[in-house]
Design a protein that fits this description.
Radius of gyration: 15 Å
Order of helices and strands: HHHHH
Shape: flat
Number of helices: 5
Structural class: mainly alpha
Largest sheet: none
Number of strands: 0
Length: 92
């Protein structure tokens, strides 16, 4: 989802400053996820969950979009992912 946002921002039309800021924010968010920052992981999970709920409630959702959102949430809640973020900055 984050990589998709970066690609859409990079190739879309509109103000250059807004596109650059979106790319930088998405890249920083992805970097923070890789650095095992737990609150970023929790925020990502909350954003994905509320996004799914909003899509379903609005009725403007295709089945594959809902399926991908459910898969993203399931991967974020997977035991290995939770263990990865529970360990914090210690390296294996």
């Amino acid at each position: 989802m984050i990589i998709g946002s970066v690609l859409v921002a990079a190739i879309s039309h509109g103000p250059v400053v807004a596109r650059v800021l979106l790319v930088l924010v998405a890249a920083a968010w992805a970097f923070a996820l890789v650095q095992r920052i737990r609150w970023i992981w929790i925020a990502t999970l909350v954003v994905f969950a509320f996004g799914l709920i909003f899509k379903v409630v609005s009725g403007n959702v295709r089945w594959y979009v809902a399926a991908l959102s459910i898969i993203e949430i399931a991967l974020l809640l997977h035991p290995l992912t939770r263990e990865f973020y529970a360990r914090g900055h210690e390296r294996p």
